[in-house]
Design brief:
The protein is of the alpha+beta class and 417 residues long. The protein has helices at 30-40, 49-52, 82-89, 114-121, 127-133, 138-153, 181-185, 195-210, 240-249, 287-293, 355-378, 383-416; strands at residues 3-7, 14-20, 57-61, 63-64, 67-68, 73-78, 158-166, 169-170, 217-224, 254-259, 278-279, 296-297, 306-307, 310-311, 316-322, 333-335, 342-344. The chain is globular, with a radius of gyration of 24 Å.
């Protein structure tokens, strides 16, 4: 299985990303990771931190001569802001009262992990909680996701995302998506296809900034090129829709995930929801496309590419909803944990909105889930071994399609006879 873990605090010395289980032979350059890290820093409405950091990954282990070698991959992303926080975040003990440490946080922010973390871990300073709970951690996730993307790209899988809603303003979604979604939307300040909606969103962001407020929104993630048969129905923890939902919900500030039609499917009759299955014809697609999808054709994808926790061969479509960021420049009410009295919550440097960046993080998490599913399905210690298994599986699917055609032809002849 493919596993990853991260370490590090928002204003610590660095973030660490460790990926285990990646097969040997995945082509990986530092630029492959750094391109994704740069995309995560995009988006109108980001705060001053994005002007300080220029995230770059340093390979520590697991990659040699531009390829993975099968051992754990470790990457380090240095925090440039560390020099301003070294005294505050130092691991060394301090001689004075710990409560006197600079920038101690005793007024927890509503909506953040501050209060519950202080209570759970018995900490006097919420900085011990918020530094790790910060969305800065997602830079390490994106680095791990970049490795997964490189594996998936060996099998023609593409992952893209785009913003569909911000602060209640809905952006128009194209009826036909471009082959490379990110190549188009990354040119947009908010990573959306709808320039008119984007103008309105930017005005709303500017207004929220003046008011000291924050905004949430929704991104759509689309994964293409996946074969039928990834995941499984046999156990709850092998269902891909469950694994994807867990991965998306683990992203900081994400509060909702839909697959395909999502909640809309609950409001419609089954006849308007389920994707009808049709026999394939010679005009149904190329041999490779038919093998990816099995020996059947569907005209709709309301299921979002998953049935019974298994990929159908159609694009996997996810909608991911992010709440407004918890740090408001016009702070909400809270209590001071030292005095127990009412107070204004702490103000930390933050963004007005980070929804466009969340889409990039969601891509990374989807890449990790699907790379794990590929390894689970096709095995192998190297990419070439995985490819043999992958091609054998597609050949098996294709031969089954052929056998159906032969059987149908034989039945037709028998009726004529």
């Amino acid at each position: 299985m493919l596993r990853f873990s991260t370490a590090g605090e928002s204003h610590g010395k660095a973030l660490i990303s460790i990926v285990e289980g990646a097969p040997a032979g995945i082509p990986v350059l530092a630029s492959d990771v750094n391109t994704q890290l740069a995309r995560r820093q995009q988006g109108y409405g980001r705060g001053r931190r994005m002007k300080i950091e220029t995230d770059q990954a340093e390979f520590i282990s697991g990659i040699r001569a531009g390829e993975t070698i099968g051992s754990p991959i470790s990457m380090m992303i240095h925090n440039k802001d560390w020099k301003n926080w070294e005294e505050i975040m130092s691991s060394a003990p301090i001689d004075t009262d710990p409560a006197a440490r600079k920038r101690a946080v005793t007024r927890p922010r509503p909506g953040h992990a501050d209060l519950v973390g202080m209570l759970k871990y018995e900490r006097e300073d919420a900085r011990d909680i918020l530094e790790r709970a910060s969305a800065r951690e997602t830079a390490a996730r994106v680095a791990a996701g970049a490795i997964a993307r490189q594996l998936l790209s060996c099998f023609g899988v593409k992952i893209g995302s785009f913003l569909t809603e911000l602060g209640g303003i809905v952006a128009t979604r194209p009826s036909v998506l471009p082959d490379d979604i990110n190549d188009v939307v990354d040119e947009s300040q908010l990573r959306t296809f709808d320039p008119e909606a984007e103008k309105e969103m930017i005005r709303l962001i500017d207004s929220a900034k003046r008011d000291g407020d924050t905004l949430g929104g929704v991104c759509e993630v689309v994964v293409t090129g996946l074969p039928v048969g990834l995941g499984s129905h046999v156990s709850w923890d092998r269902k891909l829709d469950g694994r994807l939902a867990a991965a998306m919900m683990s992203i900081q500030a994400v509060k909702g995930v839909e697959i395909g039609m999502g909640f809309e499917a609950a409001r419609l009759p089954g006849s308007k929801v389920h994707d009808e299955i049709h026999p394939v014809t010679d005009q149904s697609g190329t041999a490779e496309e038919l093998s990816l999808k099995g020996f059947a054709r569907r005209d709709t994808n309301n299921a979002g590419g998953l049935e019974g926790g298994i990929t159908t061969g159609a694009p996997v479509v996810l909608k991911v909803a992010m709440k407004p960021i918890s740090t408001l420049m016009r702070p909400l009410g809270t209590i001071d944990m030292n005095s127990g009295l009412a107070a204004a919550s702490t103000v930390e440097r933050s963004d007005v909105t980070a929804v466009p960046a969340m889409g990039v993080v969601a891509e990374a998490m989807a890449a990790i889930v699907f790379a794990d599913a590929f390894i689970e399905k096709f095995g192998g210690d190297s990419v070439s071994q995985m490819r043999h298994s992958y091609e054998a599986f597609l050949a098996s699917v294709s031969s089954r399609k052929h056998s159906v055609f032969v059987t149908d032809h034989a039945r037709a002849e028998a009726k004529l006879g």
